[in-house]
Automatic annotation (TrEMBL):
Pfam family, one: FAD_binding_8
Name of the featured protein: Oxidoreductase FAD/NAD(P)-binding
Molecular function GO terms recorded: 2 iron, 2 sulfur cluster binding; flavin adenine dinucleotide binding; metal ion binding; oxidoreductase activity
Domain FAD-binding FR-type: 238-338
GO CC terms: membrane
Cell location: Membrane
Gene3D superfamilies: Nucleotide-binding domain of ferredoxin-NADP reductase (FNR) module, Translation factors
Source species of the chain: Streptomyces griseoflavus Tu4000
Spans annotated as Disordered: 1-32
Length: 461
């Protein structure tokens, strides 16, 4: 199969010779995402050390199994607090690391938490059973019935087991996001129950004023982060900006652009490449939140999202009426120019994944090359805007068409279209299969990992 509408390597759109923009200023040696990631690791390591010191100072005074049970319980509490921080959606972390990676870390931390809790229950139960001569099941029943807080801990563990089960990859694929999210809310109940258990029976918690202050401070900081990022900031921003739909513009039979305006949008810290969780406050859809990227760089006056009908929620956007109120959470994501390490850029888009790519092209300086992968030219959303932007900015635009196989963005083809790609930052956004194939090609071509930027717009990890 041939490629249609692909300019030569030395040409921009419509055969116009590409004009290079002035190079960007040198980027900082320490990348923002590296600083944020290192900060999180250091924070976790420092707290793990504090927990160990407080545990040793509290003394042991029991058999080895009970000692191990208490220690695994303390580290389970630390992991639970760290999980809350990862999903608090704090702007400083999200802009540097990205919601997709934070959510993925939250998921894997959750599995670590689950194993720590199971170890805590097993060690404690067998340890006390060894001292009382009861069998482990009877010992657990006895502890739940006679020791304050243990029954609450058992309930908390049951809730976490349920949340862990629905977080497994196969289960998440079968559940609607709203169902998954509703079940996941029970993890907050588990947090409260687990903390009340620690307050009631945690010997390390009450071993010294320093230990008590530490654990209250840890849980207080984690819950404050969640309340700030997921409640206070969204409510405050929506009250300030009062977003409304101004126009709904069909781009083709399956894709529609929604234009939104509001008050003081110049104060909204949104950047090209980011996304919001959008709730359109209609009678039948107000309860659904969808992650859609901005398809134009924010200009302080309007916001625009461009969406392909992939389900009932996205298909219903075509029926939105001007004036519809909008509740938006965000902006989220680290798929922005903040990640740049090189003056020049390669932007690779597939299908409707072109929306953040189009916004990034509008904001980027330096020389840019855009590769837009679609089945046919008729499927190329916002192609006219891309051509106009490429012409205005002296960028190269390559429209790569044809069936999914053979791969049109294999290493040899990427090298032909962009001979200097190893010296560029590369932004990739498209369907999962295409994105995976492109990332594999980039690695095969030796593009440094720090220059490759991609983001999965997913809420469930």
């Amino acid at each position: 199969m041939t490629k249609l509408g692909v300019p030569g390597p030395d040409q921009g759109v419509s055969g116009v010779t590409a004009v290079h923009s002035p190079p960007s200023p040198p980027t900082a040696r320490r990348r923002p995402e590296t600083v944020a990631r290192t900060g999180l690791y250091a924070l976790l390591a420092a707290n793990a050390l504090v927990v160990a010191v407080l545990f040793v100072r509290a003394g042991f005074g029991a058999n080895a199994l009970v000692v191990l049970g208490r220690l695994t319980g303390l580290y389970a509490g630390l992991l639970m607090a760290f999980q809350l921080l990862l999903v608090a959606r704090l702007p400083w972390l999200d802009r540097r690391i990205g919601m997709d990676r934070l959510t993925l870390w939250h998921r894997w931390t959750g599995f670590g938490l689950l194993w720590a809790l199971l170890a805590h229950v097993v060690f404690i139960t067998f340890g006390y059973a060894d001292m009382s001569s009861l069998d482990p099941v009877d010992q657990l029943v006895d502890l739940a019935g006679t020791v304050e807080g243990v029954l609450r801990a058992v309930v908390a563990l049951a809730l976490i087991l349920v949340v862990g089960a629905v977080s497994a990859r196969r289960a998440r694929r079968r559940l609607a996001y709203e169902t998954w999210h509703f079940i996941h809310l029970y993890s907050y109940a588990a947090v409260v129950l687990a903390f009340s258990h620690q307050v009631a029976v945690g010997s390390t918690f009450t071993a010294s004023p320093a230990a008590t202050a530490y654990w209250w401070g840890l849980w207080g900081a984690a819950l404050t982060a969640v309340l700030t990022g997921r409640l206070v900031l969204p409510l405050g921003r929506n009250r300030r900006h009062r977003l409304r739909v101004t126009a709904v513009v069909p781009e083709n039979d399956q894709v529609v652009s929604v234009h939104i305006t509001g008050r003081d949008l110049h104060r909204l810290p949104a950047r090209a490449g980011q996304f919001f969780l959008w709730r359109f406050l209609t009678r039948d859809r107000w309860w659904q939140a969808h992650p859609f990227s901005l398809s134009a760089a924010p200009d302080g006056r309007t916001l625009r999202l461009t969406v392909k009908a992939a389900g009932d929620g996205s298909a219903a956007l075509r029926r939105l009426r001007p004036g519809t109120r909008v509740f938006a959470e965000g902006p989220y994501g680290a798929f922005t120019t903040l990640r740049r390490t090189r003056p020049d850029t390669l932007l690779i888009a597939g299908g409707v994944g072109v929306t953040p790519i189009r916004a990034l092209l509008e904001e980027l300086d330096g020389h840019a090359v855009v590769l837009y992968r679609v089945r046919t030219e008729a499927d190329a959303v916002l192609l006219g805007e891309l051509r106009a932007l490429a012409l205005a900015k002296g960028a190269e635009l390559h429209l790569v068409t044809g069936p999914a196989a053979p791969d049109r963005l294999a290493p040899a083809e990427l090298s032909r279209l962009v001979p200097d790609l190893t010296g560029r930052d590369v932004y990739v956004c498209g369907p999962p299969g295409m994105t995976t194939a492109v990332l594999r090609s980039l690695r095969a071509l030796g593009v440094p990992k720090r220059q490759i930027h991609h983001e999965r717009f997913s809420l469930a990890g």
